[in-house]
Specification:
By secondary structure, the protein is mainly β. The protein contains one helix and eight strands; from the N terminus they run αββββββββ. Strand 5 and strand 6 form a beta hairpin. About 30% of the residues are buried. This is Outer membrane protein beta-barrel domain-containing protein.
Length: about 160
């Protein structure tokens, strides 16, 4: 209600404002050799229509390998996702987005790149007396090569630029 009254009084909607968000991510792989992943990402958002924005995302994620049959830990793998896409604001606080890009594999000296796509939705939670917001997002993401499919949860601080 606070956000709606602010926008109704002539404030700028997040849908048509340039922004940068920085946040933490939790990744839950499905049917893969990983148990869980976590990391951080930065997302730049540039509006180009009333309810549409271009997005560019970069991050670093670490994944824990499943325990081997011997009982020893399988170790960790690190990946660097780089994606670009479109964000559509359904209303001033809810959005849907899609992104395409690459994921750089930083493990075992092979530096392989993987194609990735993600589809997600999110919610912007306004903060008092500021144009900054908390961005809560949920996405489905799939990578080529070894077929990683995962759900990601992102909690970020969004700075209005």
């Amino acid at each position: 209600m606070i956000a709606n009254s602010v926008y109704a009084q002539g404030g700028s909607s997040p849908a048509n404002s340039t922004a940068l968000s920085i946040g933490a991510e939790l990744n839950i792989p499905q049917r893969s050799g990983y148990t869980i992943g976590y990391g951080a990402s930065a997302k730049f958002e540039l509006p180009f229509a009333n309810t549409l924005s271009f997005t560019a995302t970069a991050g670093i994620h670490q994944y824990h390998l499943k325990t081997l049959f011997s009982g020893k830990s399988g170790g960790n793998d690190t990946f660097v996702p780089l994606k670009a896409g479109i964000k559509y604001y359904i209303d001033p606080r809810f959005y849907a987005e899609g992104e395409l890009g690459t994921v750089i594999d930083r493990n075992r000296d092979n530096d392989q790149n993987r194609f990735t796509y993600s589809l997600g939705t999110g919610f912007l939670l306004p903060l008092r007396n500021t144009s900054n917001m908390i961005d809560l997002g949920l996405r489905y993401e799939e990578w080529s090569k070894n077929g990683i499919q995962q759900f990601g949860i992102r909690v970020a601080y969004r700075f209005g630029l």
